[in-house]
Design brief:
Blueprint (H helix, E strand, L loop, with lengths): L1 H7 L3 E11 L1 H4 L7 H10 L9 E9 L10
Antiparallel strand pairs: 1-2
Length: 72
Protein backbone atom coordinates (compact mmCIF):
# COMPACT_ATOMS: atom_id res chain seq x y z
CA UNK A 1 0.00 0.00 0.00
CA UNK A 2 2.87 2.40 0.76
CA UNK A 3 4.37 1.78 -2.68
CA UNK A 4 1.05 2.58 -4.36
CA UNK A 5 0.86 5.90 -2.49
CA UNK A 6 4.35 6.90 -3.66
CA UNK A 7 3.50 5.97 -7.24
CA UNK A 8 0.21 7.91 -7.03
CA UNK A 9 2.07 11.17 -6.38
CA UNK A 10 4.52 10.70 -9.23
CA UNK A 11 7.54 8.95 -7.72
CA UNK A 12 9.41 6.39 -9.81
CA UNK A 13 12.00 3.74 -9.02
CA UNK A 14 10.70 3.42 -5.47
CA UNK A 15 12.91 1.06 -3.47
CA UNK A 16 12.80 -0.09 0.14
CA UNK A 17 16.37 0.50 1.31
CA UNK A 18 16.02 -0.58 4.91
CA UNK A 19 13.40 -2.32 7.04
CA UNK A 20 14.16 -2.55 10.74
CA UNK A 21 12.07 -3.87 13.62
CA UNK A 22 11.07 -1.30 16.21
CA UNK A 23 10.22 -2.66 19.65
CA UNK A 24 8.89 -1.41 22.95
CA UNK A 25 12.34 -0.47 24.25
CA UNK A 26 12.88 1.60 21.10
CA UNK A 27 9.57 3.41 21.64
CA UNK A 28 10.70 4.54 25.10
CA UNK A 29 13.41 6.71 23.50
CA UNK A 30 10.84 8.87 21.71
CA UNK A 31 8.35 11.23 23.37
CA UNK A 32 5.44 9.97 21.27
CA UNK A 33 3.99 7.69 23.93
CA UNK A 34 3.63 8.07 27.68
CA UNK A 35 5.69 5.59 29.72
CA UNK A 36 2.43 4.29 31.19
CA UNK A 37 1.18 3.41 27.71
CA UNK A 38 4.36 1.50 26.88
CA UNK A 39 4.09 -0.34 30.22
CA UNK A 40 0.50 -1.22 29.30
CA UNK A 41 1.62 -2.58 25.91
CA UNK A 42 4.30 -4.66 27.61
CA UNK A 43 1.61 -6.26 29.81
CA UNK A 44 -0.96 -6.97 27.10
CA UNK A 45 1.23 -7.86 24.10
CA UNK A 46 2.77 -11.32 23.83
CA UNK A 47 6.42 -11.26 24.84
CA UNK A 48 7.62 -12.48 21.44
CA UNK A 49 6.21 -9.24 19.92
CA UNK A 50 8.05 -6.85 22.28
CA UNK A 51 11.05 -6.56 19.93
CA UNK A 52 9.00 -6.17 16.75
CA UNK A 53 5.97 -4.01 17.44
CA UNK A 54 6.30 -2.02 14.21
CA UNK A 55 8.89 -1.60 11.48
CA UNK A 56 10.92 1.44 10.52
CA UNK A 57 11.14 1.63 6.73
CA UNK A 58 13.51 3.78 4.65
CA UNK A 59 12.31 4.27 1.08
CA UNK A 60 13.99 6.02 -1.83
CA UNK A 61 12.59 7.17 -5.16
CA UNK A 62 12.59 10.15 -7.48
CA UNK A 63 10.18 12.33 -9.41
CA UNK A 64 11.00 12.74 -13.08
CA UNK A 65 11.76 16.32 -14.09
CA UNK A 66 9.24 18.10 -16.27
CA UNK A 67 6.28 15.89 -15.42
CA UNK A 68 3.35 17.50 -13.64
CA UNK A 69 2.42 16.21 -10.19
CA UNK A 70 -0.85 14.21 -10.28
CA UNK A 71 -3.76 16.15 -8.77
CA UNK A 72 -5.03 13.63 -6.19
Amino acid sequence: MLLKKFLNVGFEDVTVVERMPFGLDDLRRYPLFAPEFIDFLRRVMPEHRHREMVFSIVVTGHKPEGRPVPAH
